[in-house]
Amino acid sequence: MGTPGAGKGTQASILATRLGGCHVSTGDMLRDAARNGTPLGQQARRFMDAGRLVPDDVVIGIVAERLAEPECRDGFLLDGFPRTVAQAEALGRLLAARGQPLDAVVLLAVPADEAVRRISGRRVCPACGTMFHLAFQPPQRPDRCDRCGAGLVQREDDREETVRHRLDVYARETGPVLEHYRRAGLLREVDGLGGRDDVARNLQAALA
Ligand code: AMP
Fold first, then answer.
1. Is 155 a catalytic residue?
2. DSSP classification of residue 82
3. What is the per-residue pLDDT across 102-117, written as a single tens digit (0 to 9) for each?
4. Ligand 1 centre distance from Cα of residue 168 (Å)
5. Do residues 110 and 192 lie in contact, with contact meaning Cβ atoms separated by under 8 Å?
């Protein structure tokens, strides 16, 4: 869990590589669907571009489908889900049916201004989806994807006013989810400020 720009995607990828498990990023799955122009992707894109949450039934459906894959049978890392109380409740039912309780919920804590600063430098390849950051992970050639050479763009939902809106949505919709997990004693708060490797170490310690 964490605001847009908290580093969820970066840290979840590092953790998933280390644990060797199934990494379920709803943001990545929705962006892939939008890039591929599937009906679901077209529907999702309208919400994402406006900085709004994609409807619960759509997101819950794709998570349930993904968790049913063999790779996710023994465990999984959820990144960017659940973001609403309804999603958390659906996840609870899904996990109860599988007999697999959550081990932990991690909150990557980053102040809003820092989140906006980080997001403004983010660039993505519209062709293959590879992410870059002008300051932290710059491409080798300016504005060109290292992997496929396509021109990099800013994510539609990474524009400053959309980001501010996403932060409001986070406080309103996701705040109560954090409270739910805090009360359940599952929430581990990790300072998301600092370099990628420092945060990864803190995260690892919080889960040890
Ligand atoms: P992210 O990359 O996690 O910041 O997600 C980017 C966008 O995808 C969000 O702003 C939402 O529009 C959509 N999205 C990702 N995960 C969810 C979710 N669990 N529920 C609803 N919308 C989501």
1. yes
2. -
3. 999 999 999 988 998 8
4. 13
5. yes
